[in-house]
Amino acid sequence: LSNMTRIRDLRIQVGFAISDGILIPFSIWYIAIFIIIFLFPYAGLLSKQTLVQAFQVILYIPVTFILEQLPYVFLAGISVKRIAMLENRLTRLIQTSVKKQPVCGTERQSFSTIDFQDIVFFYQDNTQNLQFQLGPVNLTIHQNEILFIVGGNGSGKSTLLKLITGLYFPHEGSILIDNEKTTMEAHRALFSAIFTDVHLFKRLYGIDRSRHTEVKKYLKMMQIDHVVSYENNRFSTLDLSTGQKKRLAMIVALMEDRPIYVFDEWAAEQSPQFKSYFYNTLLPDLKLQGKTIISVNHD
């Protein structure tokens, strides 16, 4: 509520600034024209020829265009301020989470089995007509196993992953962890997922800063330390290729240190050598650490 109030006040301030930014320059502009047209000739300060030349110059000055852009400049200013407010809020949440919440990797959640019983999920159009249905699905995920999901395009692989990770709610069926129902928040906390549409942040959120020194090791392991570095608690750049972005997302997932890793066609944009590393080295190493891996792939 306090954030909404601050945003409202900020919008009001910007509204006044836009009004002032338009009215004041326009008023000064028209006063100047009045003085040039009526007062200067009357006082004998301008001849008719000079007055005509002055107007020719005035007509070539895009003053109106410049003044019309002022509202966009002010609106850009409010957008920057709101982004700064969001970043400050996220920073405060990180600081308080260290004191109030378990830090990722220090208190691991565990499970033996996750059972998906008769899970059904479907997409509908605006007229409630069925467009696609997945299920009913019956699936049991065991701790410390590697599970591969294969299928053609449009078969529902990514939808199934979002159901498994708790990003989508099933329309029918139930999900049990160790034969007990649980909250969706507790369910989601078990997973670190990398989907095909990778979204990255320059900062590491929700991870104990004492572990940030491990990032350089992972950058070298993922062979992207020559294009991105980690300094002052942030990555130097996110301007990377798709394959490199997925490697950076893998680093974030490894830092989160959750019991279950979910990879949605992670190796699709990788070189043959790194695909081999993913399947023959990285996945077996995670399994040796007691992790559970669910991977969707065409390979």
UniProtKB/TrEMBL annotation:
It comes from the Bacteria. PROSITE patterns: ABC_TRANSPORTER_2. Residues 114-298 form the ABC transporter domain. Keywords: ATP-binding, Membrane, Nucleotide-binding, Transmembrane, Transmembrane helix, Transport. GO terms for molecular function: ATP binding; ATP hydrolysis activity; ATPase-coupled transmembrane transporter activity. The chain crosses the membrane at residues 21-45, 57-80. SMART domains: AAA. PANTHER family: ABC TRANSPORTER ATP-BINDING_PERMEASE PROTEIN YOJI, HEAVY METAL TRANSPORTER. This is ATP-binding cassette transporter. It comes from Candidatus Magnetoglobus multicellularis str. Araruama.
